[in-house]
Amino acid sequence: MKRRTSARVKVILAVALILAVVTAITSALFGVTWAERAVQTVLTPIRSGFSSLTRQIERYYNYIFGYEALEAKNEYLQQRINEIEDSERNAAALERENERLRELLELSKQNEDYQFCDAYIISWDSSSWKSTFTIGKGTNAGLEVGMVAVTSQGQVVGLLTEVGTNWSTVTTILDTSLEISASIASSGHTGVVQGAYASGEEGKLRINYLPSEAVLRNNDQVVTTGSAVYPKDLILGYVIDAGYDESGVAKYALLEPAADFNTLEQIFVITHFASE
Amino acid sequence: MLDKLYITPKQWLHILRWTLYALLFLLAMMLQTVVFGNRTLLGVHPQFVPLVICCVCLREGPERGGLFALLTALFWCLSGADMGSVSLLLLTALPIGGSLLCCAVLENRFLPSLLITAVTLLVEQSAIFILKYFFDALAGSLYLTELLPCVFVSLLAQPLIYLLVKRIEKVGEPYEST
């Protein structure tokens, strides 16, 4: 009996080992497998239900404790600040180069060509070392890998890295694996923005590879330089600290992300934009 | 043929018991990924899934509990868990090891269960951290400032999960004793 028990346990352990190796290899070779797609598809309605239930409970809680009005006012003021800062960013860029005025006006006209797909966040990755979340829309809403997700104020949230039928995974700009080409709005110096978690700055961003002559001031805005997958001049964050990197020949700056990830509920995916 | 399709009351209770375990696992998973995915509890993202797997495996023994651990860890891995393959292996092997240890040396009571659950959680999270440390250049200091508080806070839920699992285990017990 003991031998049989032992044999069964050995079989379970062997199966676990084989499955671990198989999932690791298939994940590395093919990305999202059909099995993962199936599980995610089944989980999506459950997650959506839990997510809306959580939001409902949270709203009741806030209502009971009288914070709802305060939150609405805060949200309104935050939106106003964003609008004012957006105007300020445009003005700084316009001062630097008169030609840029026409370009920015052209860009704001082009923004009308943006096509958005809104989606609610249904779950977050619970790991401390990864910053991704799942939204309740996928290929059925026209979403594709590489599309950019923004807030209602146009602040960059992240990029779509996995897309299923009715779900998509968004890797946020806080994740260390994501690198986005960006520039300082006031000076035009370019660099690469990535999450600063690996260097012990949770919830912050870091723009690397800035030229040593770059002048960085607090609250300088950092925006996307644009690429085939995301438009330019989307706001990423604000400079809060700066210095020379480990090599001593290039500068880096620590950024406060523009998007507030703690209160994020709904995002907008730019499904189409007029690229230059 | 129809006789074979008949489900005895004992079998019904078995089905009910394992359904309740599965629902408990799903609840833990939803709490971990949906409720506390973007919120923190005492400053950390608590990990409930390893606690449920470990508690069920310890109460049900290395065979049935081990199979439960394998299936739930596989589901957890396929649901998009961070370093899912590592979790799949460790969340199956460690609870089975703990269960075998309980059968051989320790008693299947609360304190040994808490100890084995703590070791499971610590080893699983440490393995993920080490891989992230080498491949994603994670700062080593985060082990003390993030990982250990996360393990500690997660373990605060262990008594409740242990009690729930103990309650569920009692479903169908009268049939097993006869």
Would you write up a description of this structure?
- The complex is a heterodimer of chains A (276) and B (178).
- Helices cover 37% and strands 27% of the residues of chain A.
- Chain A is of the alpha+beta class and 276 residues long.
- The longest helix of chain A has 31 residues, at 34-64.
- Chain B has a single domain (8-177), classed as Arp2/3 complex 21 kDa subunit ARPC3 (Orthogonal Bundle), CATH 1.10.1760.
- Chain B has 9 helices and no strands.
- Chain B has helices spanning 2-5, 9-35, 49-60, 64-78, 84-104, 110-135, 142-155, 158-169, 173-177.
- The longest helix of chain B is centred in the first third of the chain and has 27 residues, at 9-35.
- The chains are: A alpha+beta (276), B mainly alpha (178).
- At the A-B interface, α1, α2 and β1 of A face α2, α4, α5, α6 and α7 of B.
In short:
Chain A contains four helices and twelve strands; from the N terminus they run ααααββββββββββββ. Chain A has 276 residues and is an alpha+beta fold. In chain A, the strands form two sheets. In chain A, strands 1-2-5-4-3-12 form a six-stranded antiparallel barrel. In chain A, strands 6-7-8-11-10-9 form a six-stranded antiparallel beta barrel.
Q: Measure the end-to-end span of chain A.
A: 73 Å
Structural class based on helices, strands and sheet pairing of chain B: mainly alpha
| Reported CATH architecture of the domain at 180-257 in chain A | Beta Barrel
> Which CATH-level-2 architecture of chain B?
Orthogonal Bundle
Could you list the spans of chain A in which at least 5 consecutive residues all have pLDDT below 50?
Answer: none
- Residue share in β-strands of chain B: under 5%
The CATH topology of chain B is Arp2/3 complex 21 kDa subunit ARPC3
Number of helical segments of chain B?
9
Rg of chain A, Cα atoms, Å: 22 Å
How many helices of chain A does DSSP assign?
4
Could you report the average pLDDT of chain A, rounded to the nearest whole number?
Answer: 82
